[in-house]
Amino acid sequence: MPDRFEVDHRAALFGARFGGKDPARRAGNTDESNSAAASREVLERQNDAQIDDLEAKVAQMKEITRGIGTEVKASTSMLEGMGVNFDKAGSLMKSTVSNLSVMMKAKGGKNMCKMVAFMVAVFLLLYFMGGRATRPAGTTAVNASFQLKQNASDESVKSR
Question: Where in the sequence is the domain holding 113, given as residue range(s)?
Answer without folding.
Answer: 109-160
